[in-house]
Design brief:
The complex is a heterodimer of chains A (166) and B (244).
Chain A lengths: L7 H8 L3 E2 L2 E5 H4 L2 E7 L2 E6 L9 H14 L4 E6 L12 H10 L1 E2 L29 E5 L7 E6 L5 E5 L3
Parallel strand pairs in A: 4-5, 6-9
Antiparallel strand pairs in A: 1-2, 3-4, 7-8, 8-9
Chain B lengths: L1 H22 L8 H29 L5 H6 L10 H4 L5 H22 L5 H29 L3 H14 L11 H6 L7 H14 L22 H15 L6
Helix pairs in contact in B: 1-2, 2-6, 5-6, 5-7, 5-9
Classes of the chains: A alpha/beta (166), B mainly alpha (244).
């Protein structure tokens, strides 16, 4: 397919269909891991960045992008894995945060509130995605995937994942 | 170029071997949340190792891949520091190893992220965000155990006695570090200050005048590395070229 027949905006819309295999409610666009798309004649370059260096989903995501774009007719697809500037939760879309909460995962707080190196610092106030109470506590800084921490709500008692600020 | 390759491999080996050690806790952690925490850290470290191995493979440009560098080099070719290959021991020893190393990485990556080599700088910048978590989490464990019960305090003392001798090497440069323009000697003061703050809070003594064991960075390892590699490399050695 030639660049003249498809624009970048449309490509982003197609990539919106690809979900994070570990948080399937989020698209890779919501997560902010697609950093750039370049169309040069018939070659398509997609730049992606990992959330954490060890994120095991990156290979799957790269493969999914390749499949999605191949079905659009692109023959030459180059996927570039870039790590600088480093990914941050600030790149997550507002739509992504809304979808996360609906799914039962507390979305990341704005970064400036929390990147605190102090030891035994009070856990940041995270809103329970179920009952909306801020009366919650951190169970563990590390959760089921690298990007999440474990919390529990003190009001409705529900344990939940928090997509931690990074 | 060869110094840069060696230095990149040194960074890769450090993170791979500590990642492998931490992964030995998988399913054996003291409680579920801490089991998950230590294996999360393991995953971060192995992720960092992959970035460094991929770069080293590109530099070598001899058909090496990230996998061949991790799975097909021998003990004497590994350039990791001795600290990371030490056995897990009990939780106190694992926490101390993590704390001493994360603290070192924290200052090293801060320097490395401004290095003229943009690839190493990018990996350092990215990894530093993860190291912050590791450092905070392991610091809290040092304080919790050191200033905890008589039993936990005495286990921390044993761990310090066991591991301190491997920290000297971290700040003694070898040729490939000097040639790559890394000044690790300058990190020692900041590192030691941070250790002191946490040890003070944990009511633990900072050892002085301890004999320091060296050699890991140039491939002369303690007896433990061979056993780690035997397990780590078994599948690739037994079934060469096998893939998932």
């Amino acid at each position: 397919m030639k660049s003249s027949t498809i624009d970048k905006k449309a490509l982003y819309a197609y990539l919106e269909e690809i979900k994070d295999p570990e948080v399937p409610v989020l698209s890779i666009i919501d997560l902010g891991i697609v950093r750039d798309i370049q169309l040069n004649d018939d070659e398509l370059k997609v730049t992606i960045t990992p959330t954490y260096t060890g994120c095991p989903a990156m290979d799957m995501i790269a493969a999914a992008i390749r499949v999605e774009l191949s079905t659009l007719g692109f023959k030459k697809i180059k996927i570039i894995n870039s790590i600088s500037p480093a990914w941050t939760t600030d790149w997550m879309s507002e739509e992504g945060k809304r979808k996360l909460k609906e799914y039962g995962i507390a979305p990341p707080n704005p970064r400036q509130q929390v990147c605190n190196d102090k030891l035994f610092a009070a856990a940041e106030a995270v809103q329970c995605p179920l009952c909306n109470s801020f009366h919650t506590h951190r169970v563990s800084e590390f959760g089921s995937t690298a990007c999440k921490a474990l919390y529990q709500c003190d009001d409705c008692k529900e344990p939940f994942d928090y997509f931690k600020c990074h | 170029m060869s110094a840069l390759i060696d230095y990149t491999l040194h960074l890769a080996d450090n993170t791979l071997i500590l990642g492998q050690r931490n992964a030995e806790w998988c399913g054996h952690g003291p409680v579920l949340e801490q089991d998950i925490a230590i294996t999360n850290i393991s995953l971060d470290l192995i992720g960092q190792a992959r970035s460094f191995y991929q770069y080293a493979a590109e530099l070598k440009a001899d058909g090496s891949t990230e996998d061949s560098l991790a799975y097909l080099r021998t003990e004497r070719e590994f350039k990791n520091c001795l600290l990371v290959e030490q056995p897990n021991g009990d939780w106190a020893q694992t926490m101390l190893r993590q704390f001493l190393f994360s603290c070192y990485q924290f200052f090293l990556y801060q320097q490395l992220q401004h290095h003229t080599n943009t690839r190493l700088a990018a990996i350092a910048e990215k990894s530093l965000k993860e190291v912050r978590y590791h450092l905070r989490w392991s610091s809290e464990w040092i304080i919790r155990l050191g200033d905890g019960t008589g039993e936990s305090h005495s286990r921390m003392l044993t761990a310090i006695d066991e591991l301190w001798r491997y920290t000297g090497e971290l700040f003694i440069p070898v040729t490939y570090e000097t040639e790559t323009g890394i000044d690790i000697t300058s990190l020692k003061e900041a590192w030691l200050n941070n250790i002191k703050i946490v040890f003070d809070e944990a009511t633990l003594p900072v050892p002085e005048n301890v004999f320091m064991q060296t050699g890991g960075k140039t491939g002369v390892h303690t007896e433990h590395l061979g056993f780690i590699l035997t397990e780590l490399q078994y599948v690739q050695r037994a079934y060469p070229g096998s893939e998932w």
